[in-house]
Batch of 4 targets.
Target 1
Amino acid sequence: MQLTVEFGGGLELLCQSIKIHNVDVDMPAGEEKLTMSNLLSWVRTNLIKERPEMFMKGDTVRPGVLVLVNDCDWELSGQLDTTLEEKDVVVFISTLHGG
């Protein structure tokens, strides 16, 4: 499934400073749909190059990371259970900034 995954607010530094990734994510074996839970696991394995603990805590994103699916907050669409479709755009933005 082709998706666009974007990182902002400093999270792009975990992905070799690349903000926008056009990716092709395979459906998990035996699954009929791709969920945000599946995508997070794929991102951790394939895109995050350093310090994955700055992006994820357990099986979800760390507190302070805003997640948008097609410009809609994932909290309104089911968070980890959000179903993704071809050509969706998923954006991860850190809302925490050092000073």
Target 2
Amino acid sequence: MNKASDAPDTDYSTRDVAALLGLAVRSVQLMVDRGELQAWKTPGGHRRIDRASVDAFLQGRESHGKKRSAGRTAADAAVAAGSAQSGGKAKVLIIEDSKHYQKLASMLLRNDFPELEIFVADDGFAGLAMAGQLRPALLIVDILLPGMDGATLIASLRSHAQFADSRLIVLTSLDETDLAPYMFALDDVPIVHKSRMVTDLPRRIRELLGQRDAVVA
């Protein structure tokens, strides 16, 4: 949409919003494309993002963060307890907002990889925080996550040396066309389509953990 040329421009540029939200510029563009943020174009063709929609997003994220904080002590205790019980087991973190796919991935891991300790996060921000706590050997990341999409999360992980030995697998229900905007962060990351999880996910995990063991050794 276009605003009147004489209207005061109090809205944000895409780069402003990226800095404000701590996301990549491309991720902000995708949020606009998905309708999560409202945008308009200046007569010169520059994209401006509606300040009210950014404020609403921040308020929603703050509210979500407070809910997470309320249960953080229990969550931290669960992480600590899981680490204590793992007995040196390698950790895997599943970052997926669908309860169905959380359960399916966890079941496949328990059945085929009893040597792994499984942890689950419901959204991108929680997943990033848990990854920092756990430093997992493997992260299984959905692309369409609330708050922070999977590509942005992966780009953030790859910018930190502490995750250099962690392996990544992407889960998605998107086809190649819909997945294309996220490929900026997915170089060399195996992609498992959710319709083929039962056959493809265990195979990919075996391949990646074998590579990791070879590097660590």
Target 3
Amino acid sequence: MTENNLKKTILYKNHLILGAKMVDYSGFYMPLQYTSSLREHISVRNKAGIFDVSHMGKFILNGKNSMNLIQYLTINDLSKINIGQAQYNCFINENGGIIDDLVIYKISEKKLLLIVNAANIEKNKKWINYHIKKNCYSDIEFLDFSQEYSLLAIQGPYSLSYIQKLTNVSLHKIPFYHFEIGDFAGIKKVFISCTGYTGSKGVEIYVSNKHVEKIWNKIIEINEMIPCGIASRDSLRLEMGYRLYGQDLCEKITPIEAGLSWITKFEKKFIAKDILQIQKIKGNHKKFISFLVEEKGKIPRTGYSLTDKYNNVIGNVTSGTFSPILKKGIGLGYLWDNHQKISPLFISIRGKRISIKIVKLPFIEVNNN
């Protein structure tokens, strides 16, 4: 996408004033970093930071058949959560491949808020509208608020204490994957959720574009709060092992292969259910792995090859970075068919074979006080 076609969030000028390095991310000008990604990462782990993630897609589905539609198009079971809760989920296609991963908020039994990845907004809209028409769900009102609402993420062990004075909502009392609606920085009826992508304590604020600059400035005025870019957001999510669509997830990868069986609820009816059931039972599929690089200073990157002791390529890295907390290279990737139990494993970095160690997620234990 050319620079002329890139979209801008409402806070674009604010980022420039703060010295952000802006880059193309999912078709938007987004701040890569303001000072350094390392400083921003450490601030979120030890104190607090704020992210502008307004590029994310924001849909509303409202109607008596909204639940029926989303239950069929996704793998998790929305009937298991209450009004005021949220759920991590995936849209899948007829072959079981992941169309997108998303968070769904249950506002009522008829009304749902869907937060989707920016790069997949149009794809998701077409998919949802296709199935609304196919099932003759004329009662469903489907609205795209992606360009009308902004989204801020305030993350870090002290983040809630820092911003509590700005709201009448008891932020510490919002359970994980729940939301509240209240006043924030003098703005009425602000949607406040607790579904963070960094692993550190925090909240997300959904607010109309006309009010977001006021809220951003109020938060930035807090001395210990620093703005953070997508580079630190990526290293933070990787330390937790959270998947990123377009790298760790795509339409050629199923939830079973991606290690997302825990959100795949076979007790309900959903698209491609039979395919995923057979895949899980047979077990002859690629395997998602998380690993540490044993050698100091070696950092895995997307696309690097994973090999066996004979130097045969048996997999690939989908996400990799340097963990500022572990001070080691960490990565996510896949071992291909029939290579799930091979040991030892290696990664090829600039022609050199480096030993890696498969570990369980998350890579780190986060201190959230």
Target 4
Amino acid sequence: MNHFDLKAAFNSLQKQMSLKLTTNRQLVSHAPSMGDVTEESWRSWLQEYLPKRYCVSKAFVVDHNGFMSQQIDLVIHDRQYSPFVWTVNGMDHIPAESVYAVFEVKQNFDKKTLEYAGEKIKSVRLLTRTNAPVYHADGCIQEPREHFNIIGGILSLDSTWSEAFGEPFINTIDSLDFRSHIDIGCVLDKGGFNIHYNVDADNIREISTPEEALIYFFLKLLSRLQKLGTVPAIDIEKYARALESM
């Protein structure tokens, strides 16, 4: 039987993404443009490698009450079961029910960017999500599923801390309120991280090596997405109440 070197394949992907993001930072000197290029690099990379059931966008997230999140750099949302995404003045607006995960994208990783990312994530988790029964062709009705906790994360190229995941990182992560929790992230030059929060015990923080930062992050993200399953069905009637005819 022939042998396929999975480790070498994953390392190759890591190097490609790192080179792409590093080159973008070197070539684009204007700060706002650099941020836009970096965000698009992460979005296009995830869209290429995530299963096709997921869509990756920069967007605002909205609910049926008309409330809206802050602008989110990277939203992973449902492609198959979402009946609508509104585009207003060139910016997507995605119903909260369709969202699996949200990420803040930064050039550098530090206390300020972690706290800022937490606020962005919180603005999405505070939105109200509907859930409706699912009607099958055979006449069976599946009861509405419970809402899962939307994954929150941060993506960056480097860290301003000498030790990216040392005490300052731990203190900042542990100080975030539960709606601002950052579950997963990648500092491309330092490592990937995956956090499990515990109410009655210490949080579990898993950190990768710098050499495997991107692949570690990607595989942990895939695992988290798999465990979420499918997004709840949207209660269309509640959104339709915005119309005078309804």
